[in-house]
Amino acid sequence: MNLKVVFFTLSNLLLATAVALLVPLGVSICYRSQGHGDWIVFLVSSGGAIFFGVILNLLTRRSDRHMGNKEAFAIVSLGWVVIALVGSMPYFLYQDFLGSGIDQQVSAFRRFTDSYFESMSGFSTTGATILTEIEHLPHGILFWRSFTHWFGGMGILVLAVAILPLLGVGGMQLLRAEAPGPQTDRLTPRIQETAKVLWWVYVLITLVEVVFLWVGSVWIVPEEVRESPADGLFYAFCHAFGTMATGGFSPKNASIGHYQSVYIDTIIIIFMFIAGTNFSLHYRALQGNFGSYWKDEEFRFYVFVIGTVTTVLVLCTMLQPVVNINGTVRAVNQEEVIEIGDQIYPIVDGRVEYENQFHSIINEHATINGQVYPVYKGDIVYNSIGSALRYVLFQVLAIVTTTGYGTADFELWPYLAQIMLIFLMFFGGSAGSTGGGMKQVRFLLLIKQGYREIKHLVMPHAVLPIKLNEQIVPKDIMSNILGFFFIGVVVFVLGTISLAGLGLDLTSASTSVASALMNIGPGLGTVGPTDNYAHILPAGKWVLCFCMLMGRLELYTLLVILTPIAWRK
What we know:
It is a single chain. Helix content is 57%, strand content 8%. By secondary structure, the chain is α+β, with helices and mostly antiparallel strands. The N and C termini lie close together (5 Å).
């Protein structure tokens, strides 16, 4: 392996990150009226990145620039680790090094583990956070959280290929290493131009969303939550970054639910859908070819999944009663129930049956074997199709695109809805989108493979190739997908065992790993949409950081550099 070209490229990524740190520095200065001195941490972090980047650049600048597959995988994997490390410095410095002079009320970043977790969650567009009082943080820190999403959303190495001509030779290797999916869509003959096109489309759509959100937060949302033009612009950028990168960090404690606005929800829904769609289709649409959307099989499957799950969940939340028992939501089939132990017993005609005996309900209580049990009344989640569609569609898109924003606590929904959302975590967005997960195209091809096997049993001698968009899918792609699913299951199981061994209950452990591996953010249990990851032990946070990185690089890339053969000459 040519380590010099690896470190030379990493030095340039360090310098690019140093430049990126100047953006929140400017934001912090512009909002200096808040009384915080957080601009100092960005100055120190940027200066440190420049110092080490320049030294590393000088030591390796005369190196051989040849880049093969091994070097590309090493650059991508180590690049994300290093950039997350640099990105964690503003958090860590804000609390531990400079915190005593800036803000002694913020204790979330007192450990480096927490700072790195927040940074990796940001760059990988996971959106899992250790913060509770988010709105207490200054504008600079909040902007950097969201900006890490946007910086990592399209892919840091894609940006590098676009802006660093020196990487032109190994550009294709870098793109394949960062996004080793089943299809690579080259929009232009040169890979460097393709990377530029993708980023310009990304920037354009982001700015459009910023305008819509800014107008809404200043003039349209309910008066009690309206922002000033300056603050409205700030929050519009932060939420647009989180949406287009499918990240989910919000500068509001209540996320998008803070606004309680149909307008804001609708804008976020539209742009989450856009972010989860293959960006090459957006490029063709901007050229006037709008028909390319529906011609694409993966896009049609993407729409089908969203539509089907939304329909089922709307019906579920409108028809299935639930009760809240000591903070735990239980789905029920009757309007009134009691709980004995862990079991739910329905009340029918004013009586409850327990151990083959009927007990009358008196004053909303049942007395059984000398013990008094209260009556819990079941109720549906949403009583109108408009409300159900608004909140369900938002959460479905937030989960399937791996954005992770919230307008409703889906842990208060019926079990069926929660289970479907858990399965939806694994789907992810389309290939070529900023969404995480396993990608829609992989599930589509697996369905095609299963149908092919059924047909093959009926017609054992027939030649039945698998096609995607009228193109035959090579067998090595199908092998890649099967291997991808197997590795994903193994990592998921091992991660769940690790988190459970560190004290988390099975629901919290499994969904936190799924959320990290699929780059979603919220899970269930103690990591639900209204909770955070602060309570997880440091060892657990490092496990989740590893899962975030694996998910962002789609498993194979990180595993390649962990094998001895990758480092042999």
